[in-house]
Amino acid sequence: MGYTKGLHDLGDGCFGYLQPDGSWGWSNAGLVVGDGASLLVDTLFDLKLTAEMLDAMNAATRAAPIATLVNTHANGDHCYGNELVVGAEIIASAATAHEMSEVPPAMLAALNHAEGEVGELFRHFFGAFEFDGIEVRMPTRTFERRLEVEVGGRVVELVEVGPAHTRGDTIVHVPDAKTVYTGDILFIGGTPIVWAGPLSNWVAACDLMLGLDIDTVVPGHGPLTDKAGIVAVRDYLAFVDGAATARHAAGLDAWEAARDIAAEIGAHPDFRGWSEFGRIAVNVDTAYRSLDPSYVPPNVVEQFRHMAELEGVVPR
Asked: What is the pTM of this model?
C-alpha cells in the first residue's frame, strides 16, 4: 500500500488517513468502523485539512457516523480540527486534556503572522497551515492509563503511554483487526521529537507495542508500517538516550552535545537520511533535563532556531 495522500482501507473496518510528506504538521489520522458507529483517531492541523479528511471518510461513515473522537495527544496537528466532528464524544488522557489548553491556535496564528526573524522561522515550519478562527473543542471524557471503548459492537483499547512525545500520549489498539494507531509515538522516515520525555518512557511505549498482537501500524507521521517500524524508532531513541547520557557525563553542554550527536547520526547506517534530523536539539535538551532536573532548556523559539541551524535551513 503506497504512501499517498488520502484514506487507505486497511481491512477489518479500519482505515488510515495519510498526509505525505509527514513532516511538520502533516499528520495522519485513523477511522475504526463498527456496526452503526465509528471512532475517529485524531483530527488535523487546520479546518480545511480536517474538512477534506471528513469528506474522504463520508462513504465509510454515512451508515456509521463518528460517535467517538480520540485525541492521541495535545499537539495541534492532532486536535485543531475537533470542532468539525459535531456530536461526537471526545476522549483523551487527562494529561492531554490539560496540555491542549497551553498552545491555542491563536498563538500559532500570531507567530505565523509575526514580522522579522521569528515570523520567518515559524512560517518555514508552519506557513502551509491556517490557524485563524479555530476554536478547539476540548475532550468531554478523560481517562488515565487504560480505557476500553465500545464502537458499534467492537472493543477499542486506549492505552496512555506518556509522558513521552508529550505529557499524555495515547495509542489506540483495535485487537480484532490487529491494528494500532500510535499518534506521535511513531514517526516513520522522520525523526521523533521528544518534547516531554523521559526517553526511557518512549522506549517502554515501543516495547509495549512490540508485545501486542498486531500486523498493521498507523504512525502519527509517515507511511504505514509494521513492527519493524516500531523497532527502528525504539532503536533511535535508545541510541540518543545513551549518546546524550555519555556527553552529559563528559561535561558537554546540551547544544554542543546535540551538534556532536547530529554528526554521528549523519553517519549512522540506520538513522541517516531521516528527515527533520535537527530535532536532535530538542531531544538532547529533554535528555539533559531528565539527567539534571535543574537544567533549563532554551525557550521554544530558540529550540526551533537550533533545529533550523542543524538542518542548514535559512528561514524565508
From this structure: 0.97
